Amino acid sequence: MSKEADGGLSALPIASTLHTIPARRLILHPKEWSEFVPIVCSGWAMSSIALPDGRRQVISFLLPGDIVSVGSLLAPLSGHTVEAITEVTYRKFKRQEIKDLLFARSDLLERLFTLWNEAKARADQLALDLGRRRADERIARLILRLSEKVAKRSLVRTQTFDFPLRQRHIADATGLTPVHVSKILGELQRAGMIEISGRSLTILNASELQRVADWR
Amino acid sequence: MSKEADGGLSALPIASTLHTIPARRLILHPKEWSEFVPIVCSGWAMSSIALPDGRRQVISFLLPGDIVSVGSLLAPLSGHTVEAITEVTYRKFKRQEIKDLLFARSDLLERLFTLWNEAKARADQLALDLGRRRADERIARLILRLSEKVAKRSLVRTQTFDFPLRQRHIADATGLTPVHVSKILGELQRAGMIEISGRSLTILNASELQRVADWR
DNA sequence: CGGCCCTTTGACGGACGTCAAATAGCGTGG
DNA sequence: CCACGCTATTTGACGTCCGTCAAAGGGCCG
């Protein structure tokens, strides 16, 4: 996989409009099927699905370069809510223009297939994690995955990175309650594996954290 | 969605070979990336991912007409184990031939995109179920989903249908233990909602079962 | 400065897992 | 056809993990 998470789509010669949205606001409504496809340019967002009673599950966190819903590029796909976590800027592309371009350049189409399969593989792994791993494992894995995702963008791997998630975001990503997330994060910090302060996270003991996460 | 779960692919003029495999045998190894794509012709199979220590999660049950891993049609996708539950017959198509045909007929390609997104949507829903629903909800939903899946194939909706799953299959699909599955199934039966006997299942009280399942 | 959300902590409860034993079913080979 | 052995199912006792509830700070923004 390349270092550009969108497969280079954002660098293509297609018309787009730039938008800015404050934290906590919706970027995509679950019922919406617009003619536009957004790509995140700055900030963090999350894609989730929800039950009528408010329970919800985060499917993926979106960082700069991520296409909001890869699957929606070529065929309708709805039900996902996309919400800004920090302030987010994003670019809206016309779906039809992307589609035309993709079909004109089979190399890009192949890249899209790969991106699509990666998204599916992540969804399957998420199901495995939620069905078969315990709270500390899930949280440690989330931290390590986000650490890798951030590292891929900054091109350097640092122990400390920007971490704007609230504990309720972590809870909705791991199928836990915010209270329990707080307890586990406290344990991980007291054990000297990580440190969270301000809006950034430091991995202090990577190998121990990986052991807890049952990594790879 | 059409009544043919593979979007009509199995009726296409492509060379294929027919295979038969006994229950409990593997159809696709997790490391394998062959040049063939199997489509189930008879019997039940399951697609799952596993951890080294044996814990595993069923991602989908495959019934006649189902393509084994839609995503693998156009780009590599591995990690899934596909195992026969009953005796299974399936047809192996050459990946390259399917690919050529799909690109020659854009109507079929569009159908594939739709199948693709349906698979992704099911994976996301699975994550929501595993992360946010309780045991009885998960099991009731699995039963109702399978009932619909079977009904779509037989073209009639009957209260009783073929149900070859062992409780460990249900456990691996719902993220539970076989013991707990047994308890919940016992409750559902004592409550008069379902009856399981031999290798078939009867839905006795659909509306109650739907209520437990928090259906739709 | 005030209000709101977030985080932390503890006590308690419920859901689900683990362990174990008894029974039933099912396929295989004699 | 029966005997055997394996696997699946059922059930109960008990333990653990995680959720719920509640209260007390802490941080952030108007």
Describe the fold and architecture.
- The structure is a homodimer of 216-residue chains.
- With 216 residues, chain A is an alpha+beta fold.
- Chain A folds into 2 domains: 9-129, Sandwich (Jelly Rolls); 134-213, Winged helix-like DNA-binding domain superfamily/Winged helix DNA-binding domain (Arc Repressor Mutant, subunit A), CATH 1.10.10.
- Chain A has 6 helices and 10 strands; from the N terminus they run E-E-E-E-E-E-E-H-H-H-E-H-H-E-E-H.
- In chain A, the strands form 3 sheets. In chain A, strands 2-6-4-5 form a 4-stranded antiparallel beta sheet. Chain A has a 3-stranded antiparallel beta sheet with strand order 1-7-3. The first copy, chain A, has a 3-stranded antiparallel beta sheet with strand order 8-10-9.
- The radius of gyration of chain A is 18 Å and the shape is globular.
- The two termini of chain A are 17 Å apart.
- The interface between A and B is medium-sized, with 35 and 35 residues.
- Chain A binds a DNA duplex (30 and 30 nucleotides) through helix 5.
